Amino acid sequence: MRARYLSKDRVPPSFGVLLNGRPAGRLDKLVTGECDVQLELEASSAAQKPRFQKEEVVVEIGGTVQVPAGRHTILLDYHNIVDGILQRVRLGMSKADAEAAEQKAKDAQQPKH
Question: Which residues of the chain have pLDDT under 70?
Fold first, then answer.
């Protein structure tokens, strides 16, 4: 079934960005890395663990879209993505700025001795 419905060539994933229902740009700048990918599901009745394989995966997709001031509806329209997990969406800041803000928020929640 895979051979019938999926193209043999791997095409890079991307997201089209719709702003209030109108095309506003694309997110297609990729950062790749290696990750252990599970090849089979773990059955509770099976005594063995599922197999994993190291594969190159996309760990970040980025881009720049101009958004005017005010309230807007943003829709991400994915392209060339067969499976995977979308873990986080960041708007309006770089990855470094977002990670610094997250660390600052964690530090603020820590009880001070």
Answer: 1-2, 5-8, 43-46, 113
